[in-house]
């Protein structure tokens, strides 16, 4: 998907119209990169030239029927147009409308700068701070290229810009999106146009510009001076650049050493219910979630871990089988719950994880302005939704629990006052695992068929679908067929079903098979086992011993 990167508020309108026109021509979705410096600010702009017409490319041949969707439209035809035409049509449109262009040039240019968006404005300001006027730039041999569409990068403009240059200095935030494209577009073009490419990495493939930190005017002025001084510059210009760079470096060092006399750690607002709700009983811990309650991480709340929005508590699903810790809490705001947090709860229920979700309800999406969720959501509705997901231990804790009558909330929901929150959390931590296991066992019995008869004439418990399947293991001395009974399956039920055992023979088996195999090994008197060949019994015994050694 092509994306545009405006460098100012004025360009947001200009590139917004350009993106619409490009999308209509190429059939592509067109994105726009916006950051705080260009969005959360105000300015006066002139819209006089916004009605200028866009140019339709003449050097791109449209396929029959154009590039936009039509009905009926096979998915393979859509993908063919996308891969073979649409991206190239967007590049042609950007080239015809000069989305990327040279904004400063010199008669004998030898040093080029490429930048887009905020970085372009920062490098222009750095040039002014260094005293590089158009006259000084002409003496240095400076050429500046403004990129309006960083992806995909239009190649012809890049090649025209690179002619005659000894070095290209590429300025962009975060990863080297433009830098890698420039290297690709120039590598196979002409042998006589091979300038040094410096950006995130220098000509020796060492890190130069930062990947993670913000690129400021001061840091760019220092980095630009370092590269310019490698050229054979006029002594007066070189002395000016050194003096300016030293001043910037000294000011930057002063700013880094400055320490505020008073520091205040962000905390909950006065009267916020999260100030109480994020606490956990002694000996317990909680997983953090996305929201203003994320601040519990740096408070004395025994709250840990990071996650994405809608993944609250899910890391515990993977951690639980490998720790002796039996239970954790997870903080989840009602705004996130409405957005995607209910999926995290569904995942935890499906996995059988022993976890208590604390849905912190304040009827507002507090982190992004306090607006209401995009729909209807009440504590009563949440109880019914959780009940429908299979959760049976649900507590509704409120300052006024009497306001929720039994017919307004899900069956079995317990109400309590906020003053009782600590005791409610302790009860949830003690009971939830046992309740969930009991529910799972009841589900198994309801789905199980009637009791079946063992081969030795006795009666065996009902078998569920999974534990009754014939598991065929092929590998050691041929095929070993084992019938997994319900009794052996129950004894292995508390183990991690998907935890593998690595054998020297190269087999990977669920750990629950170990007690099953041992169970069948002890049944030596069974008629069916006595009828097996002697060599077959030894093979099975050897296999079980290998499993036992691997488990130890």
Report on the structure:
With 552 residues, the protein is α/β, with parallel strands linked by helices. The chain folds into four domains: 3-96, no CATH class; 101-256, Rossmann fold (3-Layer(aba) Sandwich), CATH 3.40.50; 274-441, 3-Layer(aba) Sandwich (Rossmann fold), CATH 3.40.50; 462-551, no CATH class. Helix content is 40%, strand content 13%. The protein contains 18 helices and 19 strands. The chain has helices at 9-26, 36-39, 75-96, 117-129, 134-140, 155-162, 177-187, 217-228, 235-257, 274-277, 315-319, 334-351, 379-388, 421-447, 486-491, 513-522, 527-530, 534-551; strands spanning 3-4, 31-32, 101-104, 111-116, 142-147, 167-171, 196-198, 286-287, 303-304, 328-333, 355-360, 395-398, 414-417, 452-453, 459-460, 470-474, 479-483, 500-502, 508-510. The strands form seven sheets. Strands 3-5-4-6-7 form a five-stranded mixed beta sheet, sandwiched between helices. A hairpin with a 4-residue loop joins strand 16 and strand 17. Helix 4 packs across helix 8 (217-228). The longest helix has 27 residues, at 421-447. The radius of gyration is 34 Å and the shape is globular. 28% of the residues are buried. Mean pLDDT is 79; it is low at 432-512 and 516-552.
